[in-house]
Write a structure and sequence with these properties.
Blueprint lengths: L8 H20 L5 H19 L3 H6 L6
Helix pairs in contact: 1-2
Amino acid sequence: MAAQPNIQGGARFFIGVLGLGLTAWAVYGMENGILQKVVAVLGGYFLIEGLIGFSVLVRVFGGNSKT
């Protein structure tokens, strides 16, 4: 069964831009260390979430941003 998108419109765009920003900050603007790796993983998660429009957190906690 394919995942149905549960994030729409502006929220999806914002999450994608947030992921892109976090990933760029981790790659170009941080010192090496564990925080850099954590921020890079979170940025990648948000970037993919914004691209595909499906949020596991929204599914788990029962919220829905579909309008």
